[in-house]
Amino acid sequence: AHQLFDTCVNCGKTTAIRIAQQVLMMTITGKWSEELKYNLMQYGKENNYSLAGGSDSDSAIGSGTFRILKP
Hints:
Mean pLDDT: 75
Order of helices and strands: HHHEHE
Number of helices: 4
Largest sheet: 2 strands, antiparallel
Structural class: mainly alpha
Low-confidence stretches: 54-66
Shape: globular
Number of strands: 2
């Protein structure tokens, strides 16, 4: 979400990931994973959002290319 990107900018990558994991009721590790990406995509589908951005696991958030866009 734009919120995830904003949180990453304002609080750092690890904190942003931890918050996302907490929202999705996942084990909180603070590390990006394919499971987190999948769960974010599912969350987006259920809430009418679409995932856009990087495809590799570490650079997806680290480079600032990951975001969920509302159609």
